[in-house]
Amino acid sequence: MNFVRIWDLPTRLFHGALILAFVGLIATAQVGGSAMEWHFRCGYTVLALLLFRLVWGWVGGYWSRFAQFVSSPAAALAYARTPFEQRPPSMGHNPMGAWSVLAILMALGLQVTAGLFSDDEIATAGPLVSYASSQWVSLATRYHTSIGKLAVFALLALHVGTVLYYRHKRKIDLITPMVSGDKLLPEGTCASADSAGTRVLALVVLAVIAVGVGVLLA
Chain-centre distance of CA 188, in angstroms? Predict the structure, then answer.
């Protein structure tokens, strides 16, 4: 057994930045008023981060790629039915955890997209409202302020609860590897590339996406 780099630095920074941006979204939405300007900025940040993760899921470190940690729905169900003691060890996300992560990313993506088309008909309107019909704006607003928000909260609560369950009941620490990037695994386990070159690539990808989002929403 030795420590293996599972989560590259761009993936870890994405994770932390997404948490901060989401907290900012919640705080500014509760304050309202002039804070909504920052609510939109946090939303744009989440959008850019999600697009970055989509790209990084194809070109990032080995265990950050969707092809390596996303299994079929049948495999995830089979894993769920397997007694805990008989489950094979997971290098990155286990099959159920992988689908949980995808569900969270999709829910956040839908929530941000709906926000771009939302209008409270008082003082706050999304930057893309003028490009949509009134029916779509009304639907997007209802989704953003009710169903979408509740779906994100529910998925995040399930995700955090599962991580805490594994840590305290199963004595499996999923938090430390996401912070340090390394996990104690059998010798010979494939490691994720996390060199200066891959980090520069991540910066370039993020910069291009940030510029694209800025131009789209200007």
Answer: 29
pLDDT band of residue 26 (cuts 50, 70, 90) is very high
| Mean pLDDT calculated for residue range 25-39 | 93
Q: What is the mean pLDDT of residues 196-203?
A: 98
The two structure tokens encoding residue 120: 């409270």
Global pTM reads 0.93
State the sign of the Cα–Cα–Cα–Cα dihedral 200, 204, 205, 209.
Answer: positive
Integer Cα distance of 161 and 199 in angstroms: 31
Helix H, strand E, coil C: the string for 115-157 is HHCCECCCCCECCCHHHCCHHHHHHHHHHHHHHHHHHHHHHHH
* Sign of the torsion angle spanned by Cα atoms 155, 15, 127, 121: positive
- Distance in angstroms (rounded) separating the CA atoms of residues 80 and 66: 20
Would you say the C-alpha torsion 177, 180, 181, 187 has a positive or negative sign?
Answer: negative
The conformation of residue 113, written as its DSSP 8-state character, comes to H
Contact yes or no for 180/122 (Cβ under 8 A): no
Query: How far is the C-alpha of 190 from the C-alpha of 209, rounded, in Å?
Result: 29
Residue 1 has a pLDDT of 83
**Mean pLDDT confidence for 122-144:** 94
**Is CATH 1.20.950.20 the right assignment for the domain spanning 2-217?**
yes
Confidence of residue 29 (pLDDT cuts 50, 70, 90): very high
